[in-house]
Structures are given as C-alpha cells and as structure tokens.
Structures
1.
Amino acid sequence: MSPRARATLPTAFLVLAVAVTSLAWRSRAVSFAVLTPRPAQKAAQEAQEAVDFSQMTGPGILHEMIGEYALPKPVVLSPHGQLRVQEDLGVNVTVVGDEAYIVSPQHWSNYRPLGLVEETYLRDMEGETVSHEENPGIRVEPDFVSEAEEDHIMAELIELASTFGYDFAAEEEAASSASWRMTGRDEKKTDLPLAPWGWGKDFHESKLPSGLRSVVEKLQSLPGYPLGPIRDVTVNIRSSDDYQMVPHVDPLLDGPNSFVLSLLSSAVVTFSPIATLRTEIERANDDEQYAQHSYTDDDIDCLVPRRAIYHFAGNARYLWTHAVRPSVSAGDGTDGTFERWGTWDKVLRREKNRAAIIFTFADPM
Ligand SMILES: O=C(O)CCC(=O)C(=O)O
C-alpha cells in the first residue's frame, strides 16, 4: 500500500497532520450482543415497577443498551422530589411521571454564539463544515492554556498520580500503553484512595492542585458560559498512541456542562447521535468498521488542538455520545498512527502522550 498524495490542512494543523491513501486497519476482536432499544417511557415505567424506592439514596438512572454500550438516559427516578433531584444532578428537571424526571438543561442560546472557531474545527463525515444549525452544542476554545501552564499542570498531575492514579487501559490495548486515571468520583474500580477534590455536591475546589484550580477559575469567568458549581474533575493520561474511547455519555450525575482540556497532543473526538447509533448497532460496535467508517454517517468530528478546551452541553451532552476512534497505521511502514478528521483526506498523526482532563459544571440555578 502506498501513501496518498499529501493534502494540505489549515495552516495551524500543518505540523500535526499528514494525509495518506491506504491504511492498514489494526484489528481487535470486539464481541457485541444486539439488544433492541426500548422507548424511554416504556423503560421508565418498567424500571419504576422494579425499583424498591425505600432502598434508594440517590436518583435511579436508566440505561439504554446499544450493543455493548450502556448509555444513561436523561431520565431519572427518585422518591425525593424535584428540588432534591435538581440538587443531585446539578441541572433543572421536569416531572414526566410519578417520581420520574427528565433533565432540562439551560437553553442553548444562553451560551456564546457559535462562530468561526466551530466552523474551523468541526467536520461531518463528508469532510464538510458543520453548520450552526447542525451543531448539537459543541464549542471549542483554542489556546486555553499556555505552554507554561501545560507544563505546570502536567508536573502536578504526575506527582499526584503516584497516590491517586489507577491504570485504566482496556484489556485489548497494547501492554505498553501506560494509562491512568484520577477522579474524585467513586467508580468502584480501584482500592486506591479517590482524588481529594471529591465529586458532585461534595466537590472541594480548594483541594485541586493549583494548575487545575486556575483552569476552573478561568472557566468560571469565561464569557458565554453560564455555569453553576464545579461537580467533577477527571484526569485521563495515555502514554501510547494505541487507544480508543468507545461512544459514551458521561455519567448523568456529573452535571450538564462538560469541558475537556487536551494536553500534550491534539485529538479528534467523535460525536454520534444516539438516534442514529440505534440504527447502526452492528457497525457502531465493530472496531474494524468504525475505525474505517466511523460509528454512523451522521457523526461529527471535533478536531481539538493541543492546549484547547472543548465544551459540550444540551443535546451534545445528553442525546449524542462522544468517543475517540482507534488510530490506524499507514500500510507502507510510515511511522506513527493516524486518525481521520471527517474523512481520510485529512488525518491527524497521533502523539504518544495525551492528557484529557474533564471538568463538569452544574447549570446556574
Ligand atoms: O479524550 C477526550 O477528549 C474525551 C474524554 C472522555 O470522554 C472521558 O474521559 O469520558
């Protein structure tokens, strides 16, 4: 296989991206069970019948299975009343049934208008610019931190990781991929102590390392993003280019405003509408297929430059998944691995190291 003629990327990405024609797909076996998704209301009813409310300490979250992906629905069950549910979730909710609520995030027009920057970084699966009408609520803030701030944040995180970081590489990922995660949310995946800053209603901003605290303060004063209290900070660090993050919806209790800061490397993050994923269950669960063709034809690729932060809320947060596709290697021995941006005409060379730091905020209430 031979390289395709090199295509030119927007100047800012020139050093990061090359174009290739033929790529050899590295396959990893993925098994999946096809489950038929049920309509939200029927699922809510069934779950309600099965729930023993006397045992519930927090809201009950319903999930929809799309193949292997368990996606939380924006519907919760709780015996504790609307105000308590809003406090538990960090977002307004609307009553939809007996002790059942649906999230009602703030209106999209509260955020800064979509602009040239989103036109620059978002692509559909034909490589076209995503119009503002088609954008489900994704915004990009390039150069959010300086190089010096990046160094400072990374130094603090590496230090903290020796106490709080746990390995989260998927089994099928390369043994060399040292990946670790730090969060104050109890994911029941490790016996290590949780990160000291906590989570949800019990988040302690003062316990963040100074670099992350500065990011939180900057976000809180960023024009065009009305935010309530911070509820989650989760750190993912990879030291291998062999990774993927399957389509997922962030935990409902994290809150309605997700920001992800990308350090050490750029990345392509893929948003998929859940409604289309339901019709593409097999393709969306088959890594050979989605590495090449993405999860659905309605996907949107967000190119996130190094040191940028992206934000997603509203439909992009609750009705779309986000994911990082596996990278592929060129079949001609070219060094490195690549990920497509929209189409294979524009590809990003993946760096070995990347940190993705997620900051989630409540809505102002
Ligand atoms: O790597 C990214 O930009 C996304 C991270 C993410 O979605 C997550 O950790 O839940």
Note: Residues 40-103 form one domain.
2.
Amino acid sequence: MSVCAADFNNDGHPDLSAVNYVSGSVSVLTNEGDGTFATAVNFEVGGHPRCVVSADFNGDNKPDIASVGWDLDAVSVLLNITPCCFSTTGNVDCNVNDFADISDLTALIDNLFISLSPLCCEEEANTDGTGDVDISDLTALIDHLFISLNPTAMCP
Ligand SMILES: [Ca+2]
Ligand SMILES: [Ca+2]
Ligand SMILES: [Ca+2]
Ligand SMILES: [Ca+2]
C-alpha cells in the first residue's frame, strides 16, 4: 500500500492519493477541509500499481501523480488538469483562499514587464477574460482595484 499527499486542487488542504493493487487503479481523495475526505475518485493505471508519488511532472505548478507497478514497464503518469482558477479571475499570485489585491497587481506587472517568469495560473491572470495575458488585463485589474471596482472576469 502506498499513499502520498499533495494539494491537487490548490485549495490549501492536502489531498491524498493511494494505489489499489488489485483493481489496478490510483485513488484520489479530496480533503474537504473539515477533517473529512470526499469519496475516492479512481483512475485506471493497470500493471498492479504498488507505489505512488506526487510531483509536478509537466511544470504547470499543479502536482501530478505517477504510479509504478510490479511489472517494471508499468509506469503511469496522471497529469493534474484541475482548473487553477476559482470563481473570478484576478488572484494572480495564486495565494490560496485569497482575492485580488495589490500583491496580484505586483505579480502581473512582474510577469509582463520585469521577470517575465511564468504565472502560476494563466487563466487566473486573464483578468479581462479575453485573449492572452497582456496589458489589457493589467488595465482590468487596476480598474477593479482602484477605479470602477467592477468585478474581474469569471473563471473560464
Ligand atoms: Ca486540496
Ligand atoms: Ca503538473
Ligand atoms: Ca492575491
Ligand atoms: Ca486578456
């Protein structure tokens, strides 16, 4: 039996994944944040999995899962496609359970003009809800924070 913990849905609560040797699957149990876990969601991996690890294999800042089976070639990777954007956009720095504030403005300016480093969540930074992440998203975020106080775009 192998279990690993990682925050798969980016809500600040560690979730669990576990291997099911007999059924050839990996279970993911989402932490409800109140000490209980949601019903396991199973993903077929085959190959009698015996060990599961979590790491960000594709570099999108979301933890993924890999399982290794008794058969040496039975390595499976499950990429995490959980959306990183909840309700409305604008929480560009991806602080969990946080809303759009000045540190998000700093993060967006940094991404666009200074470090050009990748964002933790492209969808989250598309504050105007259209096209790519660009200066018009910065304008929308400034408008949201200081001018009209209009809500930012809904998450896709
Ligand atoms: Ca979680
Ligand atoms: Ca990932
Ligand atoms: Ca924030
Ligand atoms: Ca945009």
Note: The chain has three helices and seven strands.
